[in-house]
Design a protein that fits this description.
Layout (H helix, E strand, L loop, with lengths): L15 H6 L10 E8 L6 E2 L7 E4 L3 H11 L3 E7 L8 H4 L4 H12 L4 E6 L12 E3 L2 E3 H18 L3 E4 L6 H11 L6 E8 L6 H7 L19 H13 L3 E5 L5 H10 L5 E5 L1 H12 L5 H15 L3 E4 L2 H9 L1
Parallel strand pairs: 1-3, 1-4, 1-12, 4-5, 5-8, 8-9, 9-10, 10-11, 11-12
Antiparallel strand pairs: 2-3, 6-7
Helix pairs in contact: 2-4, 2-12, 4-5, 5-6
Bound molecules: ligand PBG.
The site of ligand PBG has 11 residues, from α7.
Length: 326
């Protein structure tokens, strides 16, 4: 009798070809969504200081950026608009001549098969920087719903394929679904930011999107990072309200939520958002020579898929697609 077990797991690790053959999880450019910041009142791209290699683009530069992303092999984008005017009612969020509808039309003209997803939230459009309408010093849920619905319809009218509501208002998916159907956009899909945690990892995004709250924080509407069961409840409610796909955000610190939501709601496509702070941590350590950026980014994204994400929104999308092609 052998002193060793019959099964030796190292047998299948002996060469790169064996490891590739037996790999359980594969990243593919077709799973990746590239976020893009579009600024209405700038003439040229401006780098985001806390996100190396990420810029805010002017409308005129979008076609060139879309060409780059497509050339890398990524076919889906998530648009964030930074409008030239902000007010208490987020008026620019609902106007057809505002930054995101114009960006959608520009993207569509440069690539008719591009999947165009738009973030639907008012924090970049309100003068106070919160994700909803303010009443008595607090973000009011029900008066925010029609604003989000109008914003979604404007994006659908401009040609968005998928609306991604991220305001974390209760009932936002149902309100948007009803408004889209009523306006004749039954084919426009909804990717719900279902389990969106009140996270410190959004810091660099708020610099990029100019959406830092002017007072307080977002804990009265985004989820408590300590809550596990509630994330499943959020996902289930979005599914019941008519979401076509669900999302967990941030990604790496919440792999347990990705895995459980995938188990509990296996019929729904699940996305995960590797957010700005996750990106910035890797990029900053890499800039100091403390981490290998490419290997760390690929390992993080593989872990997110392994946990159960079908799709990943990541600022690394086009670069990862390039690395995978090598
Ligand atoms: C809008 C929104 C935020 C992010 C995506 N949509 C910021 C926030 O909730 O404060 C964060 C994305 C990132 O950090 O990359 N509400």
């Amino acid at each position: 009798m052998s002193h060793f077990p019959h099964r030796r797991l190292r047998r299948l690790r002996r060469s790169s070809a064996l490891r590739t053959l037996f790999r359980e999880t594969r990243l593919s450019p077709s799973d990746l969504i590239q976020p893009i910041f579009v600024v209405e009142n700038e003439a040229a791209a401006v780098p985001v200081a806390s996100m190396p290699c990420v810029s805010r683009y002017a409308l005129a530069e979008l076609p060139r950026r879309i060409d780059q992303i497509r050339a890398a092999g990524v076919r889906s984008v998530l648009l964030f608009g930074i409008p030239s005017t902000k007010d208490a009612l987020a008026s620019a969020a609902r106007a057809m001549d505002s930054v995101v509808p114009r960006a959608i039309e520009t993207c569509r003209r440069s690539a008719d098969d591009l999947v165009i997803i738009t973030d639907v939230c008012v924090c970049s459009y309100t003068d106070h920087g919160h994700c909803g309408m303010i009443a008595n010093g607090a973000v009011e849920n029900d008066t925010t719903l029609p604003v989000l619905a109008e914003m979604a319809v404007a994006h659908a009218r401009a040609g968005a394929d998928i609306i991604a509501p991220s305001a974390m208002m209760d009932g936002q998916v149902a309100a948007i679904r009803t408004a889209l159907d009523t306006a004749g956009f039954a084919e426009t899909a909804i990717l719900a930011y279902s389990a969106k945690f009140a996270s410190s990892f959004y810091g660099p995004f708020r610099e990029a999107a100019d959406s830092t709250p002017g007072f307080g924080d977002r804990r009265a509407y985004q989820m408590d990072p300590a809550n596990a069961r509630e994330a499943v409840a959020e996902a289930r409610m979005d599914a019941e309200e008519g979401a076509d796909a669900l999302m967990v955000k941030p990604a790496l610190p919440y792999l347990d939520r990705i895995a459980e939501i995938k188990r509990e709601l296996p019929d729904w496509p699940l996305a995960a958002y590797q957010v700005s702070g996750e990106y910035a941590m890797i990029a900053a350590a890499a800039a100091r020579g403390w981490l290998n950026e490419r290997a760390t980014a690929l390992e993080s994204l593989t872990a997110i898929k392994r946990a159960g994400a079908d799709l990943i929104i990541t600022y690394y999308a086009d670069r990862v697609a390039g690395w995978l092609a090598e």
